[in-house]
C-alpha cells in the first residue's frame, strides 16, 4: 500500500488530466476528460470534478495527502484563482477553494503550467542536478518557469519565469497579451506557421499548415520554412539570454510541440544564443531538450504540492 501520494491535476484548454503520483514521481493511476473550453464556469468545474471522482474511486486514494494543480494561465497562487486565456468561462475562478472542498479539505497547491513543467524537469528531467534553470514550453503558447538556488521559484502569484511575454522586438506585432514583440508572438507554433504562410510557404497536398509541417519542410530544405524557424529561434535566444543575464542560469531546457522539430529549432537557437549571450557568465549556459514529455504537467503539479509540504527545495 502506497502512503503519501499526491493527486495531480494538469488543466489546459484541450484536456483536464489527473493522476495519483508517488514520492518518486511515478504515475500510479490516470484519469482524463476533455476541457469544455466554451462552457461556463460550472461546466468546466464539472469536468475537473469528474477527473477527481475517477481518482477518488481508486483504492489508492486513502494515501493521498495533498493535491497539486498546474493550470494554463494566468493563475494567481496567492488568491487560489485561475483565469486561463483559452478557457473564457473561468475568470478569477476560485479553483483552489473548489478543489479543496471536493477532496475533503486536503491541502491544495496551484501553479502555472510553465512552473509545473519546470518542477518536473528539475525533479526527474533535463534540469535535474542543476541549481539554476529556466525551463520552457514552446507550443501553442510559450511558457516557462525558474529554479533558483536549487528551489522552484514560483513567485507570489505562481507565474514567475513567464518568458513568453518578454518583449524581444520593441516595435513588433501586437501580442494578444497587450504588449508588442513578445517571444510568444514570434516563437509559438501557430506564429511559426503564420509567418511561413505569409512569406509564401505552401503546405503539401495534405493541406497540413501546422508548425510541425513547417518543420518537415525545413528539414527538406525549404528556405521559407527554414527562415521561419530561424526567426523563432532568434526570439527564443533573445529571451533566454535576457533571463540568463538577470538570473545567472546554468541551463535552459526547452520542451513542447515546437521543440519536437529537433535540430531545425535547436541548431539556429544555439547559433543565435551566441549573438545575444555576450557576457562571459551567460556564455556558459547549456541548452537542452526537455525529457519529461506529456507527463511533465502532472509530475510537476505533484512536485509543487510536495514542495508546499516541504518548502525547502524541489523533491529529490
UniProtKB/TrEMBL annotation:
Belongs to the ROK (NagC/XylR) family. Signal peptide: none annotated. It comes from the Bacteria. The lineage of its organism: Bacteria, Bacillati, Actinomycetota, Actinomycetes, Kitasatosporales. SUPFAM superfamilies: Actin-like ATPase domain. This is ROK family protein.
Amino acid at each position: 500500500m502506497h502512503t503519501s501520494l499526491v493527486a495531480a491535476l494538469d488543466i489546459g484548454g484541450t484536456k483536464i488530466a489527473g493522476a495519483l503520483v508517488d514520492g518518486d514521481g511515478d504515475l500510479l493511476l490516470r484519469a482524463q476528460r476533455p476541457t469544455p473550453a466554451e462552457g461556463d464556469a460550472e461546466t468546466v468545474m464539472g469536468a475537473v470534478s469528474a477527473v477527481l471522482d475517477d481518482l477518488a474511486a481508486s483504492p489508492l486514494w486513502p494515501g493521498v495527502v495533498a493535491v497539486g494543480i498546474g493550470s494554463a494561465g494566468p493563475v494567481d497562487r496567492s488568491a487560489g484563482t485561475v483565469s486561463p486565456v483559452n478557457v473564457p468561462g473561468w475568470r478569477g475562478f476560485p479553483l483552489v477553494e473548489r478543489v479543496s472542498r471536493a477532496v475533503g479539505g486536503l491541502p491544495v497547491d496551484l501553479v502555472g503550467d510553465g512552473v509545473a513543467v519546470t518542477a518536473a524537469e528539475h525533479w526527474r528531467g533535463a534540469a535535474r542536478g542543476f541549481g539554476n534553470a529556466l525551463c520552457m514550453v514552446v507550443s501553442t503558447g510559450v511558457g516557462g518557469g525558474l529554479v533558483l538556488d536549487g528551489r522552484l521559484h514560483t513567485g507570489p502569484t505562481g507565474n514567475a519565469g513567464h518568458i513568453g511575454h518578454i518583449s524581444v522586438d520593441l516595435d513588433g506585432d501586437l501580442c494578444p497579451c497587450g504588449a508588442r514583440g513578445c517571444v510568444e508572438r514570434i516563437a509559438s507554433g501557430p506564429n511559426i506557421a503564420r509567418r511561413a504562410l505569409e512569406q509564401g510557404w505552401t503546405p503539401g497536398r495534405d493541406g497540413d499548415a501546422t508548425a510541425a509541417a513547417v518543420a518537415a519542410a525545413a528539414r527538406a530544405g525549404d528556405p521559407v520554412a527554414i527562415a521561419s524557424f530561424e526567426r523563432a529561434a532568434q526570439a527564443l535566444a533573445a529571451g533566454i539570454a535576457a533571463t540568463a543575464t538577470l538570473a545567472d542560469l546554468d541551463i535552459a531546457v526547452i520542451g513542447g510541440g515546437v521543440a519536437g522539430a529537433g535540430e531545425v529549432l535547436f541548431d539556429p537557437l544555439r547559433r543565435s544564443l551566441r549573438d545575444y549571450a555576450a557576457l562571459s557568465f551567460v556564455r556558459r549556459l547549456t541548452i537542452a531538450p526537455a525529457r519529461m514529455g506529456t507527463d511533465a504537467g502532472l509530475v510537476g503539479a505533484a512536485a509543487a504540492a510536495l514542495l508546499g509540504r516541504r518548502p525547502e527545495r524541489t523533491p529529490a
